[in-house]
Specification:
Number of strands: 9
Oligomer: single chain
Shape: elongated
Distance between the termini: 30 Å
Largest sheet: 5 strands, antiparallel
Structural class: mainly beta
Length: about 100
Amino acid sequence: MYLYKKNYSRNELRKKIGDIYQIGGIKKYEYIDGVSKGVRAVDIKNGNGFNATVLLDRGMDISHLDYKGIPLGWNSSTFETSPVFYESKGLEWLRTFFGGIL
């Protein structure tokens, strides 16, 4: 893996870090309260600066993407709302639209 301007083997990395997720990996979880309750999500870190959050229960929406800590998306004030709050009439769906990566 190319990291901090140097190539490392898996064994070299394991000697330098305690948990591989410090550099990259996938973490699955579920929101447990508020308007996001019940939404399953996955945080993805690729080790080269890209980090993303994918919402499994929102059609694989990418709710967050950053590169080296710099956000690449837009988020509204509604947060990642559960699909149970979806409203299909007219423009009412905007009440649960949180933005993300479009």
